[in-house]
Amino acid sequence: MKIITxxxxxxxxxxxxxxxxxxxxxxxxxxxxSRNASASKDQLVYIGTNTGGGKSHGIYLYKFSESTxxxxxxxxxAESNNPGxxxxxxxxxxxxxxxxxxxxxxxxTGSLSAYKIDRKRGKLTLLNVVESxxxxxxxxxIDATGRWVLAANYGAGSVALFPVLADxxxxxxxxxxxxxxxxxxxxRQKEPHAHSAYFSPDNRYAVxxxxxxxxxxxxxxxxxxxxxAPDDPPYASVTPGSGPRHFAFxxxxxxxxxxxxxxxxxxxxxxxxxxxxxxxxxxxSTLPPDFKGSSTCAEIFVHxxxxxxxxxxxxHDSIAVFAIDPVKGTLxxxxxxxxxxxxxRSFGIAPSGRYLIAANQDSDSLVVFRIDPTTGRLTPTGQxxxxxxxxxxxxxxAE
Length: 399
Hints:
A 4-stranded antiparallel sheet has the order 3-2-1-28, with no helix packed on it. 46% of the residues are buried. The protein is built from 1 helix and 28 strands. It has one helix at residues 8-40, and strands at residues 42-49, 58-65, 71-79, 83-88, 94-99, 111-117, 124-131, 137-142, 148-153, 158-163, 175-178, 198-199, 205-210, 215-222, 227-237, 244-249, 255-260, 265-272, 277-285, 296-302, 308-314, 318-324, 331-338, 344-349, 355-360, 365-371, 378-386, 390-396. By secondary structure, it is mainly beta.
């Protein structure tokens, strides 16, 4: 019988191959363990509030566990005057807040505050405060580079662009652009009221929904030079008297959605990323057909998977859930889910898309819901946390 043995060169190659395969397997297990460890880490959640009634003292901090869905209070993160809406820098080192006031240092303007985030404890250290460029700032966003903050001044009807300095502080407004015009409601639409501000997913455009003019303003944005200029056309219009409030881009395609505060509707737009153009496709009610009471809309978000839209109703006190047609971008009703509180001014969706936290302003509560990623439906987890006058939920994921 002839025995065949491998040469030392062949044996060596086999050994190397076996070691490589073992390394790949161990690496995959390690990566999976790393992802699981990351998912199990507590996320920071910051809550913007209204301090006008005296119950709240500023920005509050929670820790949120993705593995358990548990929200745990960490107390006051920073004292602040009416720190409504919040935005967290892409590097997770800074947080910015609008101070929703009509006067700052004797001037008819609100203000913006910049904070440094303590990544271990989550507490905030005030860096500086700057004028917002107009009264009653209600919303802000930070661009993808982390170098620019865009704010909407509701009272003044304007948007302002601010540079972020090297140490996280805000510089004075680089650009201030007033909106013009009015709409049909003589009580609320005699003048412009810029209600929100956003950057497009590709960071080439900025958008502001104006309740007073029934228009969605679109601006060309240059992050390298810090310029903001009206697009052509400069805005898209919604049905007169609707009162557009907040806006959301769909991360999966060329669609966007605006929620109308006064009409309790959502309008679907086709979005052309090449020129920033918005084209209206559909308008749908956020309320059940048999609802007879008084209600206004507030917040809107697209689920991270791009398949669902969520909008809040104040009065009906619910979250309206819609499925997105993947081809047309239009909406179909899925669910109206009670927020188990009064006046859901806002809500936040965890970056994983697994949970939603509703902020009930007039019942001083945060309520946690689980999201079904297949249907989009909400299910209460049973957790409700007391928080004074919450009006914004900002997730800051674990690094």
